[in-house]
């Protein structure tokens, strides 16, 4: 069903005004033009839409069902057009959607939110978790505005480097410090593995630790509750290890010397900077995110 957007605006105005003449004035149109638009919609939708009443018109049951959807749809379109042509961080009520894994969310959600509170107090941040494989498509479709972490891009994706992360091992404190952090010492430990991160899988394989895995969990948030008294160790990004230090009696080991660097970046679609709001956020994301050593 193809319906002219201008007809939808007429329908919405008549519903709000409950009067064809007032709707015409609201839209800056003549009354006959509004009446003709209603006649066209009645034919397309096979419904009267409005019936005469004292002082104007009343909506039919179908029109009452359509009205909330019409209001939301036109409102969303108007918001999108306003955001496209202008962005004032001090008055905007926009929401930015950012793809982040749970580890990236733990590290980056707070500094990003603090930046927005300071510079754009009405703007909201929505953290989205999706599969890493479809990040280019998600950015192209507008399902997310930005991604933060480590993803594979293509020629349609812009990226800005944040910093190089590396993995360390944190252990239940009851195990004590390792005399030397070498392959033999690591092979004597038993492991908790978080999620399904390719970098961790590669480290586990490189050190020959596949048969030392005793527990798997889906989120880093579970680690501080599981690790104390478990006799287990876990590979975590260094920034996550810094956040976990105050949460339990853990021992940190750095097995990779020199550290195996994992580049982290901010990503957006190449057309995103054409949107003033996305361009504003794109310029401020990297400065807002600090290196893990600077975390509280």
What does this structure look like?
- The protein is an alpha/beta fold and 296 residues long.
- It has 3 domains: 5-85, Orthogonal Bundle (Arc Repressor Mutant, subunit A); 95-163 and 263-294, D-Maltodextrin-Binding Protein, domain 2 (3-Layer(aba) Sandwich), CATH 3.40.190; 167-253, D-Maltodextrin-Binding Protein, domain 2 (3-Layer(aba) Sandwich).
- The chain contains 11 helices and 12 strands.
- It has helices at 5-17, 20-27, 31-45, 61-85, 102-119, 135-141, 183-187, 198-206, 223-226, 238-244, 276-288, and strands at 50-53, 56-59, 95-100, 124-128, 146-149, 157-165, 167-172, 190-194, 213-217, 232-237, 250-253, 262-269.
- It has a 5-stranded mixed β-sheet with strand order 4-3-5-12-6. The protein has a 5-stranded mixed β-sheet with strand order 9-8-10-7-11. Strands 1-2 form a two-stranded antiparallel sheet.
- Helix 1 (5-17) packs across helix 2, helix 1 crosses helix 4 and helix 2 (20-27) packs across helix 3 (31-45).
- The longest helix has 25 residues, at 61-85.
- The radius of gyration is 28 Å and the shape is elongated.
Mean pLDDT: 85
Distance linking N and C termini: 56 Å
Q: Name the quaternary structure.
A: single chain
Please name the CATH topology of the largest domain.
D-Maltodextrin-Binding Protein, domain 2
Q: What is the 3D shape? A: elongated
Order of helices and strands: HHHEEHEHEHEEEHEHEHEHEEH
Amount of beta strand: 15-25%
Would you report the number of β strands? Answer: 12
Structural class: alpha/beta
């Amino acid at each position: 069903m193809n319906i002219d957007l201008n007809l939808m605006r007429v329908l919405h105005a008549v519903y709000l005004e409950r009067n064809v003449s007032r709707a015409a004035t609201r839209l800056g149109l003549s009354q006959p033009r509004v009446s003709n638009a209603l006649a066209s919609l009645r034919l397309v939708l096979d419904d009267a839409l409005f019936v005469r009443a004292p002082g104007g018109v009343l909506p039919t049951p179908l029109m009452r069902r359509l009205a909330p959807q019409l209001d939301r749809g036109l409102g969303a379109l108007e918001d999108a057009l306003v955001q496209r042509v202008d962005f004032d961080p001090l008055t905007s009520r926009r929401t930015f959607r950012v793809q982040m894994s749970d580890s990236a969310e733990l590290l980056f959600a707070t500094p990003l939110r603090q930046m927005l509170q300071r510079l754009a107090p009405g703007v909201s941040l929505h953290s989205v978790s999706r599969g890493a494989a479809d990040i280019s498509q998600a950015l192209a479709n507008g399902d997310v505005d930005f991604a933060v972490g480590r993803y594979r891009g293509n020629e349609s994706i812009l990226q800005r480097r944040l910093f190089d992360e590396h993995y360390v091992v944190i252990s239940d404190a009851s195990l004590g410090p390792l005399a030397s952090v070498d392959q033999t010492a690591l092979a004597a430990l038993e492991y908790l593995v978080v999620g399904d991160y390719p970098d961790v899988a590669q480290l586990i394989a490189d050190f020959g630790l596949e048969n030392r895995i005793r527990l798997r969990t889906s989120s880093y948030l579970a680690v501080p509750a599981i690790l104390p008294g478990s006799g287990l160790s876990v590979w975590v990004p260094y920034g996550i290890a810094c956040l976990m230090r105050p949460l339990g009696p853990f021992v940190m080991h750095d097995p990779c010397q020199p550290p195996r660097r994992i580049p982290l970046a901010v990503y957006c679609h190449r057309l995103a900077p054409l949107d003033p709001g996305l361009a504003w956020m794109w310029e401020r994301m990297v400065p807002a995110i600090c290196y893990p050593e600077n975390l509280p």
